Amino acid sequence: MGRRFAVPFWTMAIINCPHCNQRISSLKEICPHCEAPVAAPLSREDAERIAARQRRERSYRAGNLSYLGLVMLVVGSLWWWFDGDAGWMIPPPVGASTFLLLGMALYILARGYMIWLQVSQKRPRSGR
């Protein structure tokens, strides 16, 4: 005869936060990621605070990507300089030129995204 297990009343499920879409416990009343109440509707103050936090995090991510692009540019330049006996030889090594091109593209895209974030933040929203 098989054993029957009763499901305890404290069982939980993993749900997505309705505000930041991160995975949280269904027993939580406040999301640990965005600090928004899970069950209650957000007040205007809370919504603005969460939106400001999300903008700040996006800006930090874009800044980190631009720093990564700069590091790739430096690595590619150093690789190009130290690869041959003559310093800056033409054509550059394939690996160095790859780092240079990817670093430059990443830096330009990240900086463009940062500028777009700043411009979109200052632009007045319609309907408010």
* Class per helix and strand makeup: mainly alpha
Main beta sheet: 2 strands, antiparallel
The average pLDDT is: 79
Radius of gyration: 25 Å
| Helix share bin | 40-55%
Q: Please report the total strand number as a whole number.
A: 2
Going across the biggest sheet, name each strand in turn.
Answer: 1-2
Give the number of helices.
2
Shape: elongated
DSSP strand content: under 5%
Number of domains: 2
Quick structural gist:
This protein is mostly helical and 128 residues long. The chain is built from 2 helices and 2 strands; from the N terminus they run ββαα.
What can you see in these coordinates?
There is one protein chain. The relative contact order is 0.10. This protein has helices at 44-83, 94-122, and strands spanning 14-16, 23-25. The chain has 2 helices and 2 strands, in the order ββαα. The protein folds into 2 domains: 9-42, no CATH class; 43-122. It has a two-stranded antiparallel sheet.
What key phrases describe this protein's structure?
single chain, mainly alpha, two-stranded antiparallel sheet, 2 helices, 2 strands, elongated
Secondary-structure map with pairings?
Elements: E1 14-16, E2 23-25, H1 44-83, H2 94-122
Antiparallel strand pairs: 1-2
